[in-house]
Amino acid sequence: MECWGTPKGSLKVRIRPFGARDLPRILRMEMACFGDDAWDAEEFRHYRDATAAFLIAKSRNRIAGYCIAEITAPGVGEIQSIAVLPAYQGQGIGATLMRRALAYFRKQGAMRVGLMVRLDNAAAIALYRRFGFARSRTVAAYYADGSAGWRMTLRHPSEETLRERGRSWTVCVS
């Protein structure tokens, strides 16, 4: 299923499932967004073949971001990775991907959703907080360069969460 998100002041975004031919573009995006922490092709193939929701965001006919959302245990979801190309950041694409991932978790019955984020990624932390995520702990030396990460958790994803604290959105779930 494809869905369009057009929040006020944001780019028009189409969300669709990952396809095998997306991999080269995803790998380039991964390097642009994460550098030394970038995943390799095998990691993405794993999620392509898993039961995870591997979502692609397109804007202006270009892949602008992706999100991998996975149920890791009964009632527990994990944002395994989310990325938006630097040229598209701050334009609502990350929020559109997050809404779609949270809708997926809600449909799957997840009562808790977690993710990891670098301590210095202020924009991502702000986005996650807008959706109700809270820091649950610091994980020392989480990243390849020895940097710490924050574990953030959202409990009981709800319709209000999908509204991003008062903003109204239409979310399509396949």
Task: Give a brief rundown of this model.
This protein is an alpha+beta fold and 174 residues long.
Describe the structure.
There is one protein chain. With 174 residues, the chain is α+β, with helices and mostly antiparallel strands. The protein has one domain: Gcn5-related N-acetyltransferase (GNAT) (Aminopeptidase), CATH 3.40.630. Helices cover 29% and strands 32% of the residues. It has helices spanning 23-34, 41-49, 93-108, 122-130, 159-162; strands spanning 3-5, 13-17, 53-59, 62-73, 76-84, 112-118, 134-139, 149-155. The protein has an eight-stranded mixed sheet, sandwiched between helices. It is globular.
SSE series = EEHHEEEHEHEEH
CATH topology, which one?
Answer: Aminopeptidase
What's the CATH superfamily, by name?
A: Gcn5-related N-acetyltransferase (GNAT)
Strand line-up in the sheet with most strands:
1-2-3-4-5-6-8-7
Largest β sheet strand count, sense and barrel closure? 8 strands, mixed
Under CATH at level 1, the class stands as: Alpha Beta
Number of strands: 8
Total of helices: 5
| Broad structural category | alpha+beta
Question: Could you list the spans in which at least 5 consecutive residues all have pLDDT below 50?
Answer: 1-8, 164-174
Instruction: Name the CATH architecture.
Output: 3-Layer(aba) Sandwich
Helix content: 25-40%
Number of domains: 1
Quaternary organization? single chain
- Shape estimate: globular
Strand content: 25-35%
Radius of gyration: 15 Å
Mean pLDDT: 86
